[in-house]
């Protein structure tokens, strides 16, 4: 028996990896956050699978479900939206599974920021413009940020998860660093049929978010790479790069 932490991607079922699909199809128990994982994904589960929406459950209740499945020799598909390596609460679940002696593995998924960048048709790293991507969030009504980590220290292209409901605060903190004219975008429900894409600048993106009524399931991206046009080609494919050979 194994608990499979599975990156469920940004929402579109056809963005699941083949491994993720096969593990879901073979697991008699599936734990998922109903507020983030679309119901269509559950159609992959075995017909008689136990499916549990964890959206309103505590950490202790979620782990209890996993331990119970382990005691009955049942594999568990634990779906995490996006990729489980970022903002998935996977670490705290693993810590408790280790204490309970329950084995687990991890299957990566398409992260939400990658789906958002695809919707924008933009590369987040552009030569001489941005070579760093900062994935972060804000601390309001959530676990406090570690010392030394804040929007004031975010560099390059800034990607914020779990922050669109505080877009005014985000703008207020980023304008002094990036400038009010810095390109900004918000992508809600990336990859899904009801995807919403907003493009603008720091001085008008908050208004666009309020007008669209976006309050959750969105990624905020800020940085000059979003509108970069005049930049040199990368050295990787340059004619002047030495590629060896005779």
Automatic annotation (TrEMBL):
CDD domains: Precorrin-4_C11-MT (cd11641). Keywords: Cobalamin biosynthesis, Methyltransferase, S-adenosyl-L-methionine, Transferase. Pathway: Cofactor biosynthesis; adenosylcobalamin biosynthesis. InterPro entries: 4pyrrol_Mease, 4pyrrol_Methylase_sf, 4pyrrole_Mease_sub1, 4pyrrole_Mease_sub2, Cbl_synth_CobM/CibF, Siro_Cobalamin_biosynth, Uropor_MeTrfase_CS. Residues 2-205 form the Tetrapyrrole methylase domain. It comes from the Bacteria. Gene3D superfamilies: Cobalt-precorrin-4 Transmethylase, Domain 1, Methyltransferase, Cobalt-precorrin-4 Transmethylase, Domain 2. PANTHER family: COBALT-PRECORRIN-4 C(11)-METHYLTRANSFERASE, SIROHEME SYNTHASE-RELATED. Belongs to the precorrin methyltransferase family. This is Precorrin-4 C(11)-methyltransferase.
